[in-house]
Structure formats: C-alpha cells, structure tokens
Amino acid sequence: MKLNSLDAYPEKFKAIRTFYDWSNNFPRGRRQDNNPFDFYLDFIGYSIDRLGAYRYIAPVHKAEDFGFGHRENCLMADALKVFEDTGYEDVYDYIDLLNPTVGNRSNNDLVEFVAARSNGNYGNVWG
C-alpha cells in the first residue's frame, strides 16, 4: 500500500503521526538526540532498516531521566497498535513520508559500529 501522502493512509496511521509530532516538540534531555519517537523507530526496526543506525542513544532503563513518561508510553502503545493488522513495510512507508531523518542523527562511533555489525558489514566501520 505505498501511498504518496500521509492523508491517503487509513485513519489508524494517525497514531504514528501524533506520536511523531509530540516527540518533535519534546523537551530534550541531556542529549539532543533522544526523544520517544527515536525509541519507537529503534524498537520497530525502522532505524536499522531505513537509516542504518540506531537513533535512541540513552540506555533504555534511563528513559524516565529523559522525560519518557506515562504520556509517551501511551502514545507509543497507540503507534504500535497499527501493527495489529498492518505489515512492517506499510508502516515504514508511512514513516518515510514523515521524514524522521530531519534533525540530529547521532554519528556516535559505537552506534554506527553496532548498526554495521547487525547488518553483517564488518568492514572498516571505525573510519
């Protein structure tokens, strides 16, 4: 179902956009590259599949320290419910239209190394 606009997708996809919009206006923690939507992208596999690296840099067990609270948990849960009867590629295509690469994407060497290893690329990942 590769559609050309966000509005062409079924209503249930709006949960992803709501979470994305909320996260883009999210007060950042100590690091500028952490927000709840980045965590979502990592969790569903989008980050490695489409961007080649993890986006959420903070340790998951410290998410509360970066403001990931009840509201963010509920928004993420709603965004995950889209998968109930939708495949990954359809969700990924929708997220592509949101253009989540805007903003700071970490260039952290360790993150790039882990991403490269998870893709089976053992070349010169340290530069």
Concise description?
α1 runs antiparallel to α4.
What does this protein structure show overall?
Helices cover 45% and strands 0% of the residues. It has one domain. The C terminus is likely disordered. It is mainly α and 127 residues long.
Write the layout of secondary structure elements.
Layout: H1 14-24, H2 36-43, H3 46-51, H4 70-80, H5 88-98, H6 109-118
Keywords for this entry:
127 residues, mainly alpha
- The best one-word shape is globular
Q: In total, how many beta strands?
A: 0
Query: For the report, how would you describe the main beta sheet?
Result: none
Uncertain ranges: 102-111, 122-127
- Provide the helix percentage: 40-55%
Beta-strand content: under 5%
